[in-house]
Specification:
Number of strands: 13
Structural class: alpha+beta
Strand order of the largest sheet: 8-9-10-11-12-13
Oligomer: single chain
Number of helices: 18
Radius of gyration: 25 Å
Length: about 450
């Protein structure tokens, strides 16, 4: 046995012990985790049927795009090497990149790249850097070269090419992959987050890639084609609920203020224009496209009770420049129109706190309820009866992002990463977090049934 596995005989006992512990852990998981409901099992098997059928893929396009992307990367890497004088060979070497940048950015510019104490170098952060008038010329050249490389998009084309078989991508969907909410996620290729913006003439754009034409903005060109990878000669049917999370959240509140928000949808109005009408003090009919864009950024950034910082981050994604003072005005204007939101977030937290302080009892907050088993699990019961779980809830003093000391309800966060020798990370169950979890988990069932 050991020779077949290429394991030295003196180390075989280590391998056997590893296997034994593996089985024990799986047994513990099986008795710890709750059983799936009949509806959840049904959804699981539908998901597996989709995985077995596979997504139809235009392999010719993925191969041509990957080849084109390799050429773009090679050219961009030469520019990166030149702009950094050989210190960085390509932007995918994160530590080398970050070390080089840290010596050339001002404190204000470093803040642009910092989110949740981590360095982010995604497109919104890069665009924000390029908007700085005092940016080091070498850094500007470096960032522009990275923009040309289009790394994330090219990687998706590569993944589509490598993982597809017989013109189909199998096993892409992972049921309940978003562990905290049970949202669907992807394996291998992130098919849930493909760029929406496309070409006005997609057939021409595809032809240019297939024939290796000289394209002016190649990375942007490829990014706009990524959805065209999923293709079938007979055509495809796309279906989704419009602004589902924007509807579910106020519905969960089950309040007069929440109903007022839902009336916006019932009356066929555009919630982005409703926000903008209040913000700019104009009639709904007179809202301009530019004003509506501000209302859209408000809705997307503040729907889960985000603050000025979240609003500024979202604005960067929409290529909008937003100063902090202006973000505060936008935040307050949105909360005035959506007066159901903040009170409901605090209702959720209070119900969760009451549950932990009173084991084996359920406490309602709108259409959601919380209960604690007195041992390990705080449960959130959704309107469908499905449960979300928070492990080992407890109260502890924390410092909020705005510097306030509060006694918060926290739980172990399974989505976090535990370093060797350290405890699993804990996370405060804030109003925005609980609202986001309940909303996304409820909305996911709606998406799955479309």
């Amino acid at each position: 046995c050991s020779s077949d596995l290429d394991i030295p005989p003196e180390d075989l006992h280590i391998f056997i012990e590893y296997c034994r512990l593996d089985v024990e852990v799986e047994r513990l998981l099986s008795v710890t985790l709750r059983d799936l409901t009949d509806d959840e099992w049904e959804m699981y098997w539908v998901n597996e049927e989709i995985n077995d059928r596979g997504l139809p893929i235009d392999v010719n396009l993925t191969r041509a795009a990957t080849k084109y992307g390799d050429m773009i990367r090679a050219e961009a890497d030469q520019k990166i090497k030149a702009s950094t004088k050989g210190a960085v060979f390509d932007a995918r070497k994160r530590k080398t990149r970050d070390d080089w940048l840290s010596l050339r950015l001002t404190d204000a510019q470093k803040k642009i790249l910092t989110e949740d104490d981590k360095v982010r170098f995604a497109k919104p952060q890069r665009e924000a850097l390029l908007g700085c008038d005092d940016l080091d010329p070498d850094v500007r050249e470096f960032v522009m070269a990275v923009e040309e490389a289009g790394g994330a998009t090219i990687s998706k084309y590569e993944a589509f090419t490598d993982r597809s078989m017989d013109g189909r991508l199998y096993g892409a969907f992972l049921y309940a992959g978003g562990g905290q909410t049970g949202r669907f996620s992807s394996v291998g290729v992130q098919v849930h987050n493909l760029k929406r913006e496309g070409h006005k003439d997609p057939e021409k754009a595809i032809s240019e890639v297939l024939h290796g034409s000289n394209i002016a903005r190649p990375s942007e060109h490829l990014a706009k084609l990524i959805r065209a990878v999923i293709a079938h000669p007979d055509g495809l049917v796309w279906a989704d609920y419009s602004n589902i999370e924007g509807r579910v959240a106020p519905w969960l509140a089950d309040s007069k203020a929440g109903e007022k928000k839902l009336d916006v949808f019932r009356e066929g109005k555009d919630p982005y224009k409703v926000n903008a009408a209040t913000l700019f003090n104009v009639r709904y009919e007179d809202v301009t496209d530019e004003q509506r864009q501000s209302g859209k950024v408000q809705e997307l950034a503040l729907g889960f009770l985000g603050g000025a910082g979240a609003l500024m981050s979202m604005a960067r994604m929409f290529k909008m420049t937003l100063e902090h003072d202006r973000a505060v005005i936008l935040r307050d204007a949105w909360r005035k129109v959506n007066d159901w939101a903040i009170p409901y977030g605090y209702d959720l937290v209070q119900a969760a706190r009451d549950a932990v302080e009173n084991p084996n009892m359920w406490f309602k907050a709108g259409r959601v309820s919380y209960g604690y088993d007195g041992r390990a699990w705080l449960w959130c019961c959704l309107p469908s009866g499905r449960l979300l779980a928070y492990y080992q809830p407890s109260f502890e003093w924390i410092t909020t992002p705005w510097g306030e000391e509060i006694n918060a309800l926290t739980s172990i966060w399974g989505g976090g990463k535990c370093k060797v020798g350290q405890s699993w990370p804990r996370r405060p169950l804030t109003p925005g977090l609980l609202l986001e979890n309940a909303t996304q988990a409820t909305a996911e069932i709606g998406r799955a049934h479309v």
